[in-house]
Amino acid sequence: MSLIVQKFGGTSVGTVEKIKAVAEKIAGFRARGHDVVVAVSAMSGETNRLIGLAHEIQKAPNPRELDVLVSTGEQVTIALLCMALENLGCQARSYTGAQVSILTDSSHTKARIREIDDRKIRQDLEAGRVVVVAGFQGVDEHNNITTLGRGGSDTTGVALAAALNADECQIYTDVEGVYTTDPRVVPNAKRLDQITFEEMLEMASLGSKVLQIRAVEFAGKYKVPLRVLSTFKEGPGTLITLDEENSTMEQPVVSGIAFNRDEAKVSVLGVPETPGVAAQILSAVGDANIEIDVIVQNISSDRLTNDLTFTVHRNELEKAKDIVEEIAGNLNARAVQTDDKITKVSVVGVGMRSHAGVASRMFKTLADENINIQMISTSEIKISVIIDERYLELAVRALHTAFELDNSEEA
Ligand code: ADP
Ligand code: ASP
Ligand code: MG
Question: CA-CA distance, 396 to 205, in Å (whole number)?
Fold first, then answer.
C-alpha cells in the first residue's frame, strides 16, 4: 500500500460530470488499498472569471482582496468532489489551504509555501478517509488568505507530496503527459516517457504551462517522484526524473520546444554610453518587483550612445514603461518604445551541452521561414529567441520538424 498525492487541474473538474468521473478514479485507487490525498483546482475558467470581476471594479485590484476572491474557486471544487466521493461510499474530507494549514509568505498573488501542517491530513488518512485540499491557496502568519500564482495547484500537489513523503505525486491534466511541445499547437508532438527535472524546469520557465515552475522546483528540491498523466485516458504519462544519465542516453539533442505568448518588449533608445546606465534602468524596474527576462544592448556606431532593450510580462508592460520613461527623461535618452506583439520561442535539451550546432540549426530554420529574430538569449541547455507573435506557430512547427521531434506514427 502506498501514499499517493493526486492533483486534478481545472479542465479535469470543469463540470459536475467530470467531478464525478474524478471521484470514480480516486475511489478506484482507494479500492486498491492506497492512501490518497488530492489537490484540486477551480473549475476551468473560474479563476479567470473571478479576476475579470475584480477588474470591473479596480484597474489594479487590491492584492489581498484578490486572493480572498480567487481562492473561492477551489473551495467550490473541494466540496463537490467530497460529495461525489461520499456518493461512491468513499469517505472524504475537504480542507481549504488555511484549514490544513498551508503556511505561506505574505506575497499576495504569488506567495511561496513555507510549511505544511500535516497533522489533520494524517489523522484523516488513518481514519480511512481521502483528504481533498484546495489547490493554489495558503494562509500567511497573520491569517490572510494567499494564492500561489497562476497554475499554483500543481505546487500545492507537489508540496503536499513532499510534506507527507508520498510515494508518488500524480498531476492529472487534459493531455497525456509532457510533450515535445504544446500538442495544441503541434498536433504531431510526441509524448515523452520521461524528462529530466532540469529540462522540465526550463520548459516550465520558458512558458510550457503543463507544470507550474515552482512545482518542478519543489519536486527537484525534495526529490518528489512526479508524473504527469491524463485524467481522461489511461496511460503511463511522463515521469520527471532526476536520473539525467539514463534519460538522455538515447535522447535527441533537443528534447522540446517551449514558447511564451506573454512577453512584451521595452526599448530605451539613445542612452548615454557611460557606466551604470543599464544598472540604473534595470534596477528601477527590478525594484518595482517586475521580472526582467531577455536583455540586449546595442552600441551605436559613434560609440556615444546605446539602445537598451528588455522584455517583461505583458501584464507589467505599462508599469515598466512608466518607470523607464521617467529615468529616460533624466538621462536625456532619445525615446522609449514598447511592443506587446512579440513572443519567445525556445529549444530545450540537456543534450545541447555536448553538441554544437544547435543555435545555427535554429537560426537557419527560422531564416528559411523568413522569420526575423529580434533578440537572442542562451544558457547551457536552452536557446531562446524573441520574434513577432504572428510567426509563433510557424516557428514552433518548423523547429519541431527541424529538430526531428515530429511523431512519425501519428503524422
Ligand atoms: P490544468 O488545468 O490541468 O492545470 P493546464 O492548462 O494548466 O492544465 O496545463 C495543461 C496544458 O498545457 C495542455 O492542455 C497543453 O495545451 C499545455 N502545454 C504546453 N506545453 C506543453 C507540453 N510541452 N506538453 C504538454 N502540454 C503542454
Ligand atoms: N485555479 C488556479 C488558476 O487557474 C490554479 C490552478 O489551476 O492551478 O491559475
Ligand atoms: Mg495548470
Answer: 17
Q: What is the DSSP letter of 278?
A: H
To test ligand 1's pocket by mutation, which of 22, 38, 156, 182 has the most ligand atoms within 8 angstroms of CB? 182
Looking at residue 351, its pLDDT comes to: 86
**Residue 220 cell numbers, joined:** 527537484
Centre of ligand 2 to C-alpha 109, Å, is 11
In terms of Cα–Cα distance, which of 53, 102, 92 is closest to 73?
A: 53
386: confidence class by pLDDT, cuts 50, 70, 90: very high
Cis peptide, bond prior to residue 153, ω within 30 of zero:
no
Strand partners, 146: 138
Residues 300-325, mean pLDDT to the nearest whole number: 90
pTM metric for this prediction: 0.92
Q: Is pLDDT at 266 greater than 80 in this prediction?
A: yes
What are the pLDDT digits (tens) for 118-130?
999 999 999 999 9
**Do 281 and 320 meet the contact criterion of CB atoms below 8 Å apart?**
no
Ligand 1 pocket test, candidate residues 22, 170, 175, most atoms within 8 A of CB: 175
Domain 3-174: CATH architecture, name and number where available:
3-Layer(aba) Sandwich (3.40)
Across the range 9-28, mean pLDDT stands at 98
Per-residue model confidence as pLDDT tens digits over 19-71: 999 999 999 999 999 999 999 999 999 999 999 999 999 988 999 999 999 99
- Ramachandran angles phi, psi of 132, nearest 5°: -115, 115
CB 405 within 8 A of CB 180: yes
- Rounded to the nearest angstrom, the distance between the alpha carbon of 209 and the centre of ligand 1 is 5
* E strand intervals along 109-201: 113-116, 130-134, 137-139, 145-147, 168-173, 194-196
Ligand 2, residues at Cβ distance < 6 Å: 9-10, 41-42, 47, 73, 135-136, 150-154
Which CA distances in Å does 406 have to 189, 314, 346?
A: 6, 31, 16
Supply φ then ψ for residue 409, to 5 degrees.
-65, -40
